[in-house]
Write a structure and sequence with these properties.
This protein has 216 residues and is α+β, with helices and mostly antiparallel strands. It has one domain (3-213): Jelly Rolls, CATH 2.60.120.590. The protein contains 3 helices and 13 strands; from the N terminus they run αββαβββαββββββββ. The protein has helices at residues 3-12, 33-46, 97-109, and strands at residues 16-19, 22-25, 63-67, 71-75, 78-82, 119-125, 131-134, 146-152, 155-159, 169-173, 178-181, 190-192, 207-213. The chain has a 7-stranded antiparallel sheet, with helices on one face. The two termini are 32 Å apart. The structure holds succinic acid and fe (ii) ion. Residues 134, 136, 190 line the site of fe (ii) ion.
């Protein structure tokens, strides 16, 4: 398919371009939800959600865990990827097949072929939780995109520029939406505004986000 045809079908599906290499795939994860939900419980049983501390000593309002060969972690010493969950002392749980399949298909739909993530950060937001503007730059490979899946309550996602002070655009991310950014947009600042309590029929008063990366 040529690029015009791809764009046309994307627009029909409600996909929204946020940059040359960034787009929101509306509802892309919906067909996967019934398989994703039990997998979250499996991950959580091995590596529970926890509130990590940033290098500046701030306790994050977002609770997180990971699956895959590598997991993102932070403490007073800095941000990094680890093979071992610092809390359990064991490997992070393996990435369920359905996660990897969804991430690969979403990346392809956004124009990034052969995405093979080795890390999936799972974020849990309760009402009031937020994520301040940051760049995803602890990964070794900036060639691969970031694929971010939203489930549950709506979030207002902020997408900025390459400098922290650049203006941000705000986009609502709904249950089932997948946001992909890579290429020239790979290092754009982004964050999430404090979550409003708008309970979701399936997940209640929470939002779960998966961010897939090629980290190692
Ligand atoms: C992140 O940047 O790690 C998460 C983004 C989100 O929760 O949508
Ligand atoms: Fe991020």
């Amino acid at each position: 398919m040529n690029i015009e045809t791809l764009e046309f079908f994307g627009a029909m599906a409600g996909h929204q371009r946020l940059g040359p290499d960034a787009m929101v795939l509306r509802g892309f994860a919906l067909p996967f939800v019934s398989e994703l939900m039990p997998s979250i419980a499996d991950v959580e049983a091995v590596s529970p959600f926890r509130h990590m501390v940033t290098p500046s000593g701030f306790t994050m309002s977002v609770a997180l865990t990971n699956c895959g060969a590598l997991g993102w972690a932070t403490d007073r010493r800095g941000y990094r990827y680890t093979a071992i969950d610092p809390e359990s002392g064991k490997r992070w749980p393996a990435m369920p097949d359905v996660f990897a399949r969804l991430a690969n298909e979403a990346a392809t739909a956004a124009g990034f072929n052969d995405f093979d993530p080795d890390a999936c950060l799972v974020n849990r937001y309760l009402p009031g939780a937020r994520l301040s503007l940051h760049q995803d730059k602890n990964e070794r490979d900036y060639e691969a995109p970031i694929v971010s899946v939203s489930l549950g309550m709506r979030a207002t996602f902020m997408f900025g520029g390459l400098k922290r002070t650049d203006p941000t655009i705000k986009v609502s991310l709904y249950h089932g939406d997948v946001m992909v950014w890579g290429g020239v947009d790979r290092l754009r600042f982004h964050g999430v505004m404090p979550l409003k309590e708008e309970p979701h029929p399936l997940l209640g008063s929470q939002r779960i986000n998966f961010t897939f990366r090629k980290a190692g």
